């Protein structure tokens, strides 16, 4: 039995993120989430060989072996994809949050896929861009970078298929002492990834805390440097776009109806139940982004 997207969205986003890691750790197949064709698609490019983005930062493959995840590299990639989709498609609607700018029954008109070596979307979408994920070569000393508004928003779009940003896993690994479990480790990675994708869609660093539905008073677009000066310990939390930032995304990306057909989600109800059981058992026994 699969979980419909609408039914899955009725869970709080924090419940979904909490369940995603243990549930996906039980799965071995590559996660595939069918989406409407011909939408903007951002490819999460887990670098397989030396790859250089449009700003000249080169990344090489990262196995994540030293990160301490209790899952395989394939499961980690699936969990990363599911978490990014949750950040963009799991934002609460006006029906459940009076502060939300998102109408009921709508979602952002954007899709995400995993890429290996700059592979094009399997959906056939023709409007796609890559964000590289890997170790910097040489080390850059910052967590990630991306072009501002070059995918949507500033009138000077990058060419289709461009590598519009990079998430530098070797620098992020320096924050691992802050994390105590897989969910917090995933938040370190995905927080930077969602942040960089946000830059390409015309989102900038806020000047401080902003009202949002996430676990932190700081939005996912916050930075550790000026003007936000967010403490690093906020990075292990499941941060979200602020309501103001999501309003910008609605303007730059546009909306579509939430698909009503059934699709494979990060887990079936069987895996969700298994994840809940595991959780219960555990309870008992600038540029600086």
UniProtKB/TrEMBL annotation:
Start and end residues of each Ice-binding protein C-terminal domain: 262-283
Gene Ontology MF term list: metallopeptidase activity
Signal peptide range: 1-39
SUPFAM superfamilies (UniProt xref): Metalloproteases ('zincins'), catalytic domain (SSF55486)
Coiled-coil segments: none
Record keywords, A-Z: Signal
One Pfam family matching this protein: PEP-CTERM
Superkingdom classification of source: Bacteria
Alphabetized InterPro entries for the sequence: Ice-binding_C (IPR013424), MetalloPept_cat_dom_sf (IPR024079)
Official protein name in the record: PEP-CTERM sorting domain-containing protein
Species annotation: Inhella proteolytica
């Amino acid at each position: 039995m699969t979980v419909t997207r609408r039914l899955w969205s009725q869970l709080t986003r924090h419940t979904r993120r909490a369940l995603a890691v243990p549930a996906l750790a039980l799965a071995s197949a590559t996660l595939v989430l069918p989406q409407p064709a011909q939408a903007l698609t951002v490819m999460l490019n887990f670098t397989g060989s030396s790859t250089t983005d449009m700003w000249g930062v080169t990344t090489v493959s990262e196995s994540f072996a030293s990160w301490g995840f209790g899952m395989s590299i394939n499961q980690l990639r699936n969990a990363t994809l599911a978490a990014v989709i949750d950040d963009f498609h799991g934002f609460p609607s006006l029906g459940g949050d009076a502060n939300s700018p998102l109408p009921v029954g709508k979602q952002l008109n954007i899709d995400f896929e995993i890429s290996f070596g700059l592979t094009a979307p399997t959906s056939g979408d023709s409007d796609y861009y890559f964000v590289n994920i890997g170790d910097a070569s040489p080390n850059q000393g910052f967590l990630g970078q991306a072009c501002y508004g070059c995918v949507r928003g500033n009138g000077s779009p990058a060419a289709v298929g461009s590598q519009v940003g990079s998430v530098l896993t070797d620098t992020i690994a320096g924050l691992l002492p802050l994390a105590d479990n897989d969910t917090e480790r995933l938040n370190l990675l995905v927080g930077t990834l969602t942040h960089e994708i946000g830059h390409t869609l015309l989102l900038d660093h806020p000047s401080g805390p902003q009202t949002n539905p996430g676990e932190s008073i700081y939005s996912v677009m916050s930075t550790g440097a000026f003007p936000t000066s967010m403490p690093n310990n906020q990075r292990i939390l499941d941060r979200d776009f602020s309501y103001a930032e999501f309003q910008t995304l609605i303007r730059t990306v546009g909306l579509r109806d939430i698909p009503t057909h059934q699709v494979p989600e990060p887990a079936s109800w069987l895996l969700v139940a298994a994840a809940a059981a595991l959780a219960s058992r555990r309870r008992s026994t600038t540029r600086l982004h």
